[in-house]
Amino acid sequence: MYSDKVMDHFSNPRNMGELEDYDAVGKVGNPVCGDVMHIYIKVAEGRISDIKFKTMGCAAAIATSSMVTELAKGKKIDEALAMSRDDVAKALEGLPPAKMHCSNLAADGLHKAIENFLAGKRDGDSEDEIKTQLAQKLGIGPGGANALWDAGICDVDEVLRLTTEELSRIGALTDGQKAKILPRLHED
Ligand code: FES
User: Which of 112, 148, 166, 180 could cross-link to 26 by cystine, CB 3.0-4.6 Å?
Assistant: First the structure.
């Protein structure tokens, strides 16, 4: 099911752990399975001088996190921002279709870390700020926002990028809340 590269990065993850003196962290979550990734970066002279990840997730989630840290290390900020999910999947010699969307969040985590760095927000938005954004932008009220937060969601876009099928599988949301989110999904 997995390529040798995926298995290698899963079995011997590169740059795993937490950077204590990080300049910014990006958190991303997958509300379908509840997995969460943290990407920590240090920036020196406009480049990613150090990077680590902490991921609670499946084999593919760990492999994509590991690969993103390898690809980003030493890159200029704008080059790292230009890296896409596809670049990560290609470097891993492909991901199974079912895992392509589910696990391939690491590039988003890297982008979020860089955006937080550029905004001068080391830890990004606070829990309260994120819950308020979820409740207002998705129209699901505080109850729905809490449910998504508990499922690992750290950003409105993480919800909007879900497929209809993935949305239907989020057990934490009521049918009414899902119906409010459905028309807003980007659907690729
Ligand atoms: S099962 Fe959660 S990211 Fe793969």
Answer: 112
Q: How far is the CA of 158 from the centre of ligand 1 (A)?
A: 14
Per-residue pLDDT for 123 more than 90? yes
- Sequence ranges of the domains in the chain: 4-118, 127-182
> Catalytic residue at 102?
yes
CB 36 less than 6 A from any atom of ligand 1: no
- From edge to edge, which strands make up the β-sheet containing 35-44? 24-30, 35-44, 47-56
Helix axes 59-72, 4-11, angle to 10 degrees: 90
Q: What CATH code is assigned to 4-118?
A: 3.90.1010.10
Kindly report, residue by residue over 144-156, the tens digit of the pLDDT: 999 999 888 888 9
Output the pTM of the full model.
0.90
